[in-house]
Specification:
Elements (H helix, E strand, L loop, with lengths): L2 H4 L5 E9 L2 E12 L3 H9 L1 H7 L3 E3 L6 E4 L4 E8 L3 E5 L9 E9 L5 E9 L3 H7 L2 H18 L7 H5 L2 H20 L4 H15 L4
Antiparallel strand pairs: 1-2, 2-8, 3-4, 4-5, 5-6, 6-7, 7-8
Helix pairs in contact: 2-3, 4-8, 5-7, 7-8
Amino acid sequence: MSEIVDQINHVHRKVGTREVPEGEARTVLLRRAYDAAIEDVWDACTDQERISRWFLPVSGDLKLGGHYQLEGNAGGEILRCEPPRLLAVSWLFGENPGFSEVEVRLTAEGEERTVFELEHVAVVPPGMWDQFGPGAVGVGWDGALLGLALHLADATPADPEAWQASDEAREFMTRSSELWGAAYEASGAPADVVASVVRATTEFYVPNA
């Protein structure tokens, strides 16, 4: 296993539910530690230029109450911003996105180590959840946490787009899909349901796997 693929083992994953005014929401939680000061991790997650280097190009008014748009992906409003520990945004994609929010929480563990938590809470159409389960968004978030890890370590691939098509990336996404299946089963999902959503998620992210 390569060092990049091994990064996936540094992440703790949890799947759950939460009641919101719009109904029952699904939750996915990712937690890992980075060997970087909390101020550096916060800056990487909130500075427009740095976000584009490890995640996606972003535009908008990046302050409390402002709106942002990630290129080719989600957009929304900045709901809470409490430097350097808490950032919460609405996470809206498509014409009828429904309720979807992402919260990032940072905790310092000494001067050069930071615990990073990302929780995505969304009301998911039943058909989509039944088909893909938590891996539908979980695999993408695993990729984001990998990007942040490489950025903080100054080890981002010279050509990220080429890496996305590599065997290493395919292995990373396959392993991510399997680990989200394990987290889903730990939440109480039946084994046959887990096997089905892992298969569908892997086929989506890694065609002809």
